[in-house]
Amino acid sequence: MKKILLLLPVFFLCISANAQKFIQIEDKAFNFGAKVGVNSTFPIVNSLTIDDVKAENIRLQYKVGYQASVFCRINIDRFFIQPDLSWYHTKGDILFSMPQNTESNLADSNTPETDLLQLKTTSLEMPVMIGYYLVKEGPYALSMMVGPKVKYNYKVRYTTHFSEVTNEYINDSTPFELGIATGLGVSIWRLFFEFTYEFGLNKVESDFKDKSSQNPIERNISIDKRTNMMSFSLGFLF
């Protein structure tokens, strides 16, 4: 029994050493990986007008979207360059109210005070991040990163609801958006968790058409905004 008790620490030390060797990551000049996650957008609405009448009491409701990315990473000592190709689906609601005289033109007199604009966007994004490892010891790493991002909104659906009247999105005068993204990453072996926050740089204007009648007519409904976004993702580095 004494011999067994003496051999147990040696046994656990061997297992620990082998496990450490197994999860040790060799430095490579090039890696690639994939990640999935969730996001939430934070639109900054500069103006919302309907038939040239400005909306009032604008409020936001944030909703959770989802995303997936593939990327490559070029390693230079503690620095790395990481271009991504990402797919995003984002959504959110904007609550607002219109002056009474405008409200009566869009719906009947029983129209509620608060109206709703629903935003759903599907986009392809390409950030190029420049990162630095704050900690890089064995299988553990902590990194920070920053870089520009280009977004192409290839499917956009904005819908307004005024009681019985629905106005649906026509087109986006600015399908491309520019942003600056910054983030933190925590790695254990080849698994990593990443938090990023994107600051939108350019404004986007959108127009809508009236879908409440059998012969839809174009209505002058426009929104001027830029969008910030927060995202969390879990990934694997090959």
Automatic annotation (TrEMBL):
InterPro entries membership: Beta-barrel_OMP_2
Limits of the Outer membrane protein beta-barrel domain: 23-204
Signal peptide: 1-19
Alphabetized UniProt keyword annotations: Signal
Pfam families assigned: OMP_b-brl_2
Protein name per its UniProtKB record: Outer membrane protein beta-barrel domain-containing protein
Organism: Parabacteroides goldsteinii dnLKV18
Classification of source organism: Bacteria, Pseudomonadati, Bacteroidota, Bacteroidia, Bacteroidales
